[in-house]
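Fold it.
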Amino acid sequence: MTQVIFDKDKYISCLPDSIGVDGWKTVKGLVSTKLDEFNSIDYESAEDIYKLFSALFWQDIFDELIKNENTRLKSFSTRLRYKALVIRVGEIWTTYGLLVDESYREVKNPPKHNRRQVVNPERLVDKKSGTIFRLQDFQFLLNQFVNQFNGMEDPGKLISNCELEETFVLACLLTGFLQDDPLKMIHSLTWNDIFKTGGSLSWIPYMDKVTSARKGGYWIELAPFNRLIALCIKYRNRKSNSDNQHKVVKELENLKKLRRKIIDRVVDISKQCNLPEVRVDNIVQTERLHLRLNLKTNLLLSILTGMVKENSISSKQVEEIYEHMKNKEFDPEAIIEFSAHNYEDNSGEDIDQDESKTIEIFENYSTIYDELRPFLFSLVQVNSESSKKKLNDWVKININSDNISNHNFSWMIKWLIENKKSLPTKQTYWLAALRILQIFPFVKIENIGQEELKFFLESDYLPASLLLSKAAWKQCYLFMKENGVELQEIDWKKLRVIQKSISVRVFTKKVYQQLITELPAHLGWSIRLSYWAGLRVGEVCRLRACDLSLEGLPFLYVVNSKGKKSRRVSLEHLSDQQLKALVKLKKQRADKSGNDAILIVDLEEKQLVSKNISNNVSEQLEKITGKVSDGSRRIHFHSLRSAAAERFYVIKNDIRYSSIQLGHRLVRTDVQHYQHTLDLQASIEIQDWNNPLYKKDLHLPIVVIASFLGYTSNQLRNYLDDFDMAFPASKIQRKVAEKLPDGERPGRGGAKMQFINVVDANRLIEWMVWRKDK
């Protein structure tokens, strides 16, 4: 019988060297290695060779491709790409008649990685004993902790500074501090975090697991009991003149020591409740599950745990917004209602212009940009040769000009024309580099060096924008160097972008009403449409009358927006008055210029320019709100889109609806960059949590509060008398056990004790701290 020899070269030679997809060489190399195993075997017929290429052969190749060095799988998108490449190999061999079946199509890709869950039931089980820590057990633990202080147990025990600080840490642990390592986060708190706003809100940082650095944070109103303990610690520090403005738990600077002491206290309390030995991890997981039943959405719990992060509101605004939300005055549906005021533009006055040199330079840049805009647009959109010739002529005239603006802009245009990248990439990089140029209006482009770039990278742009501008400027720098320009030496490795979290400011009803009143009608309509439909400034400028459908269920089309994507935005949330105003505006424009007319035009009946709209609105906002001095991001036109996102979320209580309305592919984009009050909503809802530490009618014995402060009960009664004399209209009520809502409490030695409400206790100690400072 004639034996058949396997010809590896025949299989490998038909595979091209490249198909334009990353990973092809890796796949081809692995296939070649696998085929080497077939050379050492003699085959009786060609059918025996065909049988070698079974589904198992293809699956083995794929499984080897998708494994990393640490045996973990590559990302899901990478696995999909490798699967497509393996199938491509099979298709090529089938085309050349080297395969007789399509078993290569049976390759199975493992499912996506398991997503992290806010609540992990597996972590409710103790690994050693196998016992489960239940919701009921968590409630027992809470009650036992409170009973240590509310008179149910002997309250005569003196409490040291160290014990009081441990009590604060444990109280925080039991009231919604739910990050993966809550003790590390609580240990990092400072006085400036707890009393940051001077009001009721405290700042809770997100802690990075690896570096122990702070990466953003969220606002929360501490439970009344927690705030009482924090004030008592602060007062004790005032008494001893050792107030530490940094660490709250100042005597427990060693985190390991803090962990050990808290674990011991948790174990002691669990033994008193006849519970199995409880770990901190059990408490956190059960607490998350407990809260999940009380919060409206899982998203709010994700904010508290740090799994989902947001850019929170600036400390200058947060108390005002929070109070409005608590009192139901912060109604996103009513923040920006349509106003007929200034509907017809009667304002012919120009905004006063500052005649400083800086403004002149910026206006010069704007003039150049407006002059060359049509040619730049044609160049980056369709690579127009006529536009390229016009721009080249302009560059030749101005590249050696003494005018700094003309000189700098000439080099930027020259770089844009000769850049070999794709058209969209050229446009993105050019605009990113232009940010740097506009920050230094007095500096020639060749004199922008290390210090200037370092200054730019410390500005309040988002980190991603700073990184893009740095990369773009590096390309422009190398281009000019290749053209023989003498440039400042730059050490690019030392130019680092700090991944910082910047707080934001949001539109309030007062700011909006003032803005809409003082601006011309066409700017007013731009602002309204941006808020009502969550439109970007460019989308507002390009909107046409035919894009609005206001009969039946009202909506508008956004055509060819960012990323060449289109979307339909629902307008059913608008009031009748707002819809009537839109119908009237559409009819006016359609009757005057046809159904395809631009919806909003300026006083000269010209299409609006997005840059001019943004600048005019920003200038007016700066006059209304003043310059930002606290490092937070200022309000600008795009802030209206964030306000719309807040509104959409409140209307449906569904973050996906908000994301769809704004045209975001990922919900995460909506949460991290457009939602700024989720933490405040979570803080309001957590106040109704069935947790005794959050109860505002919790009463504590005077003797216990006195021990918190390091006083006797008689000394504290003297302070109570002084407080009542200072504020006769809001005296603090002292109750005996029989008068309490929860019934009679046993006192020490059977005596009747006096109790005061925990909220009143906070008022008293805040006054005592103020008096001590004074």
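Residues 363-446+460-474 form one domain.
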